[in-house]
């Protein structure tokens, strides 16, 4: 089973999916370029497009994002939200990244559609008002289980939870080969996926593109 990573980290597939997206506008292109130059880990364009599509299909009104960075995924989300009158609240603990993100939100004409919150999501989440119908998680992989417990009370019945990096370069797949320094992160992601997929309150699937995306729907209570 050694070498499994080659099967599960599909750079070529990702590049191909990107060619199917058509041209991104100059703002998204610029953000992609900056992220590449400064090694800021942002979602791939195919994942950005997926988020936009999900928000639009779901006609999401109240969107929560954990992990803004410079706002690349936020712009994809907010553009979807704007079409159906929705709003994005996005959290990041990195002051510099968040203020750069705000600059991009302004340039994108999205200031009215986005509320950026600065701080540790684990501290901010308990203060938010429940009722989000779409939540996107893309922050510290080692903290995903913490986020899950804090997000659960915030997601409305029928709401969607999307989590990035759940396959982490394919290393989350059992018997794959990775450096010992990633042991904790990989273990945390395996526990996260186990817990999420066995949680009867959610219906979950994992999509093997980008860095692995989990998509869950919180079940609605059966009518009494
Ligand atoms: C992978 S980047 C987000 C990329 C962004 N979603 C995109 O695709 O454009 C992860 C971000 O999560 C932030 N982060 C990590 N742990 C956090 C925490 N506990 N609370 C808030 N932000 C956190 C980091 O500062 C970083 O900017």
What does this structure look like?
With 224 residues, the protein is of the alpha/beta class. The protein has a single domain, classed as Rossmann fold. It contains nine helices and seven strands, in the order ααααβαβαβαβαβαββ. The protein has a seven-stranded mixed sheet, sandwiched between helices. β4, α8 and β5 form a beta-alpha-beta unit. α4 runs parallel beside α5. The longest helix has 16 residues. 38% of the residues are buried. S-adenosylmethionine binds next to α5, β2 and α7.
Count of alpha/pi helices = 9
* Whole-angstrom Rg: 17 Å
> What proportion of the residues form beta strands (DSSP E)?
15-25%
**Uncertain parts:** 1-7
Overall pLDDT confidence: 93
Which hetero compounds are present in the coordinates? S-adenosylmethionine
The CATH superfamily appears as Vaccinia Virus protein VP39
Structural class of the helix and strand makeup? alpha/beta
Number of strands: 7
Strands side by side in the biggest sheet: 3-2-1-4-5-7-6
Largest sheet: 7 strands, mixed
CATH architecture: 3-Layer(aba) Sandwich
What is the CATH topology assignment? Rossmann fold
Helix amount: 40-55%
| Basic shape | globular
Order of helices and strands: HHHHEHEHEHEHEHEE
Short description:
One of its GO terms (molecular function) is O-methyltransferase activity. This protein has 224 residues and is of the alpha/beta class.
Labels describing this entry:
alpha/beta; 7-stranded mixed β-sheet; 9 helices; globular; binds S-adenosylmethionine
